[in-house]
Amino acid sequence: MANKKKARHAKGKQSQKATAETVDKVSFSPASIRQFVGEVKAEFNKVVWPERKVTVGLTGFVLILVTLISIYLGTVDLLLGKIVTMVLR
Asked: What are the sequence ranges of the domains in the chain?
């Protein structure tokens, strides 16, 4: 039991140390911001974007699905509301 407490305590010290080191390394200098933006651009160039036809098709599917689900939930809400109103009268 004592070993578990020591292990937990040691993990806490390690994470505090790592956090302190991370805070020391973070800087918002123009050079680091430029480097970050360059890395973001490089990652975006690696992304495989879907074709327009696929995007339009999936968007249409989502819109139809949202419409159907909203109609279903609205109907269920209306019916349950009427049932509760009848029971309370």
From this structure: 49-89
Q: Which two tokens stand for residue 26?
A: 């973070």
CA distance 79 to 85: 10
Calpha distance 68→80 (Å, rounded): 18
54: number of Cβ within 10 Å: 10
Q: Is the pTM higher than 0.85?
A: no
Q: What is the pLDDT of residues 33-43, one digit of tens each?
A: 999 999 999 99
- At 86, which amino acid appears? M
Task: Supply 78's token pair.
Answer: 């209306």
